[in-house]
Amino acid sequence: MVTCYLSYIIDPYKVKEFEHYAKLWIPLVEKFGGKHHGYFLPSEGANNVALALFTFPSLAAYEQYREDSFNDPECQAAFKYAEDTRCILSYERSFFRPVFEGSV
After folding, report:
1. Does residue 90 contact residue 6 with C-beta atoms inside 8 Å?
2. pLDDT tens track of the chain, all 104 residues?
3. Which end of the chain has the smaller Cβ count within 10 Å, N or C?
4. Which CATH number do you get for residue 32?
5. Domain coverage including residue 16
């Protein structure tokens, strides 16, 4: 299992647009076999940092999702929405493996 951690720098004047973008992606990740754990928008502190977490069974499954998303019309529309609104200034992607109680 691998969890993708996305850290976004967003335009603080376009949080509503970024929230719409986030809501587009949650079902799309799940459509391609992932489990979305949500987006996290600014509240207190920095007003331009947002996060997202989602999990795939393996890095290979994540890579397949990425490849498939580039050919999916709904995913393309979500990419275009972010580009058109310019709500995302930059992002950084990292991968983690979860540790659960009792796991070895």
Report:
1. no
2. 999 999 999 999 999 999 999 999 999 999 999 999 999 999 988 899 999 999 999 999 999 999 999 999 999 999 999 999 999 999 999 999 888 787 66
3. C
4. 3.30.70
5. 7-41+50-96
